[in-house]
């Protein structure tokens, strides 16, 4: 992801296959460190079957960047707090049972539970063993590990933005960094149940960040014993609702953690998840039709037919993904360094036509960046110029290119799914401004290649003028959008936008404690970026909308879960009798 979420580019589908039964009845450990064998179960465990086309890149909380990996980490590792799956934006206690904030807003003190074990599951022997209990020191270690430049945590920038000393630690060369340098990070555990975190400034959104995977604890002795292999099955030691029993390229099996405290697992009844690989959405839909999986995304080619079919009415769910598709501009290249060119390009795009023609009517038009549902987001259609060809022609003339005369050649980089976005822009520039479409070259990249090609680390000569990308939220705050992506000091300022007055307002909103004031500040920030006199660092396009199908015997909060971080598998519920009957027993 480099935080550019794969959620923003493709639906994840799930497939099941006929599999052998696995025992899933655990006897609880009386003492830490005592191994417990499973007893053979005579009946089928309550199982959810689905398919997933995405690859797990990493199960390391400090290294994961893609949505697929983060989904699994959410179910393997508990955090300080939890993003409520049913109420978007609500932060609930998890490992932290309570917290206090100093009067100056800088020091957060968390009370950490002492009854959550580190559990290692041996898939070869079907054996769960307790290593020890999770402590505040494990959370301290995890946070400091994200700030260790040797670890190369892509999400270290989030921690560095708020936690005092993290930026200083990350600034040290990995070759010169020592374990002692971790103490630069102002996170301490005075005892096993107390964690203190000192911030750079009174960041009012810090609590929402504590739900993130990068803040999760990890067991130091396991990480140091196994090194990069600590997340392989047999070594992987976790504390969340599920454990991995099988993990291969074609199949993943998770079992409910037998030792997690009862109040830390959700209300779902699923004891086992069997997730198999899928080649495409069509194969997933076929498996769904044969009752072999409990849920699936709806292929775009099938959406209209399914919407019109009353047989699917009770199974269909509409899902709004608070991601934003956009085209980014390079500020270090001509002519996209010209604000009037950027304004003109943005104003030629009819977002409603884009959603109709490119996205099969599956989207919400966006004319500013922060989407609905985020704290501080203005209404999606009230700030920003949007589609205005007359304004675009005037801006192009002011840029020195009336009727696109003398406009230079320009390169657009796109991932495979974004090629149509770039084509739509080129057609609009030809239609509204008279630009010769031969001036524009679209270079298609694999996703990771695109991220590298547009990086601020590249020389200007090696970077494209524009590129297609999307952004999904890490935490529930407009800061995650206007600062973490568009801010001049952001590590994701791939636009290379110079600092300006808007950045002073962004910094003010970061530390403002009054919610109403912050909402007004973010509205002003969006106006400064996307209004008639805006900087237009990107062209916001749309917020995607999708549909999923859930079998009558299966329920999950798909409309509200997984908006920030991963989905909660412990909220899945299966009516086993109905499921088995539909699957032929």
Number of domains: 2
How far is the N terminus from the C terminus?
41 Å
Helix content: 25-40%
Low-confidence stretches: 1-42
Number of strands: 25
Largest sheet: 8 strands, mixed
- Mean of pLDDT: 90
Q: Let me know the CATH homologous superfamily of the largest domain.
A: Periplasmic binding protein-like II
Structural class: alpha+beta
Q: What name is given to the CATH topology of the largest domain?
A: D-Maltodextrin-Binding Protein, domain 2
Report on the structure:
The protein is of the alpha+beta class and 585 residues long. It folds into two domains: 6-282 and 551-582, D-Maltodextrin-Binding Protein, domain 2 (3-Layer(aba) Sandwich); 324-544, Dipeptide-binding Protein, Domain 3 (Dipeptide-binding Protein, domain 3, Roll), CATH 3.10.105.10. It contains 17 helices and 25 strands. The strands form six sheets. Strands 16, 17, 18, 19, 20, 21, 22 and 23 form an eight-stranded mixed β-sheet that branches. It has a five-stranded antiparallel β-sheet with strand order 1-2-9-8-12, with no helix packed on it. It has a four-stranded mixed β-sheet with strand order 3-15-14-13, with no helix packed on it. β1 and β2 form a beta hairpin. α9 packs antiparallel against α11 and α15 (501-511) packs antiparallel against α16. It starts with 24 loop residues before the first strand and ends with a helix. 49% of the residues are buried. The model is unreliable at 1-42 (pLDDT under 50).
